[in-house]
Amino acid sequence: MSEKDLVAAGGFVVLFLLMIVRVPIGVAMGLVGVGGFGLTVGWSPALNLLATSPLRTVTDFNLTLIPFFILMGVLATRSGMSRELFRAANATLGSLRGGLGLATVGACAGFAAICGSSVATAATMTNIAHPEMKKAGYPDDVSTGVIAAGGTLGILIPPSVVLAVYAYITEQDVGRLFVAGIVPGILAVFMYMATVRLWYGGKLPAGAPFRLQEALGALSGVWAVVLLFAAVILAIYFGVATATEASAVGAVLTALIGIARGRLGLRSLLESLVEALRTSVAIYTILIGAILFGYFLAVTQVPQNLTQFLIGLDLGSYGTLALIMLLFVVLGCFLDAMAMIILMVPIVFPVILEMGFDPVWFGVIIVMTVELGLITPPVGMNVFVINTIARDVSLVTIFRGVLPFVVTDVIRLILLIAFPIIVLFLPQTMG
Amino acid sequence: QTTLRLSHWLPATHPMHDSIVAWGKSIEEASGGELTMEIYPAQQLGAAPDHYDMARDGIVDIGYVNPGYTAGRFPIYELTGVPFQANDGPKAGKAIHEFYKNGGYAEKEMGDVYFCLVNPHNPGRFHANAPIKVPADVKGKSVRPAHATMARYINSLGGTSVQVPAPEARDAISKGTADAVTFPYEAMKSFKMADVVKFHNDLPLYLSSQVMLINQNSYDGLSDTLKTVIDDHCTPEWSEKISEGWSTYDNEVRQEILNDSSHEVYEPTAEEVTLWRESVGPVMDAWKADAEKAGFDPDTVLADYEKALEANGVKY
Amino acid sequence: MTPSRLTERVITVVERVAAVMLGLVTLLVFVSALGRYLFASPVPDAFDLSRLALAVAIMWGFASLGFRGNHIKVDILAEMLGAKARRVLDLIAWLGLLLFTILLTWKLGGRVLSQMPGGETTMDLRLPHWPFLACVVAGLVMAIVTTLIRLWLVLRYGEGLEPHETLKQDEAHGAGHE
Ligand code: NA
Ligand code: NA
């Protein structure tokens, strides 16, 4: 090991120490980045990194779509679109055995199509679907498990804040990545529904019988969601707008629809903006830190050496991919999805390219891998959020309920790795 | 044994990367292996517009900077981006070097770094998805300009400048965010634009000139022998030489596009060229105002620049 | 009024100003996109103005997070510890944040002050960047103050940090409610 390797290894150790004592992840990365750069290059240049890089990050136009998409999701939540989706899904699917569970998955998918965050999707569905399922006699582990898993659709089905960050880091076209998430997202919906039926179906009650009139009435309420999805994702797909423009249009339209229907007042509009701001700042803080940390890694030439090392292991492209995914699953034990993508993707991305994998395809694969982290112990953000809302359901119960969906996720990952065309077919049809 | 970190923002596949590597090799050899170069491409150590500060602050020892990315910061240097001054890339590099460094302007405007080289690309042109034959055709169009001075030019013609990073220029065209771009021909390939812009106005228009800057402390810390090695590699002749690879590649791409029947390469008539040249007036006036505000006499500066261009036979 | 309540009020105002700015930036990009699409004329400088204004909003929001504590962080150890040990952890964590914020304010502030007035301008209208950058630095200065206040509250009153991404009860019930 050279001196630079030692500094880099030490940097990682200090980084994890700082993170475990609750230093904000972005701040920990920033401090270690500057410190490591100082040891490698010199203290004056290291401190001067702070004069340029963080400002560049917060003024980067390519990142502005992240707060816009976050705002769109918050506004959609506050104007009750998730409730309408659930009502419509329930009117259509509710009469089947396990119908409420199927409806929850459907509503999660619908909400994911206008909201870029998994946690937000899980949180809003807990409020709406959990009481309904409880009333219908669903066991707690089943109902919360369905919501936790359904929530992960938030970052797979576009728009997706995590995919947007991935696109930024790897300099891929964010629109292409969004479109690539559509088919795997639909696949996930069907597999989750199948899981509800095949795994839990036997002990779940059927709902009220299907009534066409009611179903049509409920469906007429979801036009707003359909319109928003069309305005954002179809506009991107057909090349009418850039992703940034689409995100701003989506946020403003969501607000206008909410106001027009009398569901958003001045006060809730302001609260939505505040909430979106807080979430955005939290993400920007990680980005600021990760970019500083990245400069430190670059001068130690660790990413280059790691690429050589991984290739030297001679595991073949799929063996190396498996190793990388394993790394993400392990890190997912205590890091959240965004932090993992921002910290680790720059390091492993060159290897992925070297192995000849498609960067868009890998984006979807890695997002699905970090999704797993959202619902597996000990740290599973979706599970935590459900736990803070459904106070009477223990963490263990939720983790138990989500287990079959973890199995489905793994099967889906294997499918998409074996048949990359499932991911790439749709983006390849774009101009 | 000294290692110098050099950072630039072009991808490692860009022809300019090879030229920079070759320049670094030449320094290594001239120093008898005492100086080595660590080259970081593709913004690995910082964003493109930050490269001046990075070189000044010692984040890198050598920075490859596009002064056009930071509007208003280097008012004199912005003259090199005004259209219809120089009609060649490499030779203009030598001329700008003589004008800016030897004329003492570098000392006034970029005095906190060691000014090393100038690297313009071949003159850039309009590339569009619909014909732009005369200045009036720019009116109402959205154009992705190469730099701040070209943005001003587009605006003065009644067009709108659309700011997107160069790698997204293709996307901006295909999504209709922009109708046209100003680039050298080479960008049709390196930014994969050839399938979205089919009209090319062949009139050589403007330069975008990068500079290579060395951190003052890094330079001062070298032994006298090594300082001489660096000095020998920071000459007007090297400014020309380091720019040749990019220029050759640009000419090759232009030829490919000429040979490709799906592209229209338009040769403006003599009257049209006159119209184009007259259209630069407001931009030149704006530059003069900026230069004056910065405490320079614009006419002297312009005369100095023109003299250097003439001496190298590249005056438009 | 307790120090905590007082700061809460001030922070709420700061946060709302920043939030409104986020809203305005969204509108600006929306209008510019619409203008381009419908009338082939985007708003001049929409690119520079939106990114500069957003930077201000983000940095003012940074001050808010310094007080509230809902930065993204690893809460797993904190949740396993008792109240006393957790307080020590929170102190270390927020000292880290304070150090980073001070360094950032010092370096970034120094750079902005050294080039104002003057320096970089926007591409189209040639408006100076520095008023925006000055607001960014103001946000950082506020962040130092708010982080200090939080540190003091942790030390003196044992008030902890909000874990991130957990909703407060009222917000949780508000979410999805019409
Ligand atoms: Na989504
Ligand atoms: Na996990």
UniProtKB/TrEMBL annotation, chain A:
Cited function: Part of the tripartite ATP-independent periplasmic (TRAP) transport system.
UniProt similarity note: Belongs to the TRAP transporter large permease family.
Entries under InterPro entries matching the protein: DctM, TRAP_DctM
Localization, UniProt: Cell inner membrane
Subunit structure: The complex comprises the extracytoplasmic solute receptor protein and the two transmembrane proteins.
A GO CC term attached to the entry: plasma membrane
Pfam families, sorted: DctM
PANTHER family: C4-DICARBOXYLATE TRAP TRANSPORTER LARGE PERMEASE PROTEIN DCTM, SIALIC ACID TRAP TRANSPORTER PERMEASE PROTEIN SIAT-RELATED
GO molecular function (one): transmembrane transporter activity
Protein known as: TRAP transporter large permease protein
The keyword Repeat is annotated on this UniProt entry: no
Transmembrane segments: 7-25, 63-81, 101-125, 146-169, 175-194, 215-240, 246-264, 276-298, 318-349, 361-390, 402-426
Keyword Chloroplast: no
Organism expressing this protein natively: Jiella pacifica
Top-level taxon in the UniProt lineage: Bacteria
Annotated ranges, domain TRAP C4-dicarboxylate transport system permease DctM subunit: 12-420
Keywords: Cell inner membrane, Cell membrane, Membrane, Transmembrane, Transmembrane helix, Transport
From TrEMBL, chain C:
Membrane topology, as annotated: Multi-pass membrane protein
Subunit structure as annotated in this protein's UniProt entry: The complex comprises the extracytoplasmic solute receptor protein and the two transmembrane proteins.
Keywords, in A-Z order: Cell inner membrane, Cell membrane, Membrane, Transmembrane, Transmembrane helix, Transport
Localization per Swiss-Prot or TrEMBL: Cell inner membrane
InterPro entries: DctQ, TRAP_DctQ
Protein name per its UniProtKB record: TRAP transporter small permease protein
Molecular function, one GO term: transmembrane transporter activity
UniProt GO BP: C4-dicarboxylate transport
Spans through the membrane: 20-39, 51-67, 88-109, 129-153
Function: Part of the tripartite ATP-independent periplasmic (TRAP) transport system.
Domain Tripartite ATP-independent periplasmic transporters DctQ component: 26-156
Superkingdom to which the source organism belongs: Bacteria
Family stated for the protein in its record: Belongs to the TRAP transporter small permease family.
GO CC entries: plasma membrane
Organism: Jiella pacifica
Coiled-coil region(s): none
Record-linked Pfam families: DctQ
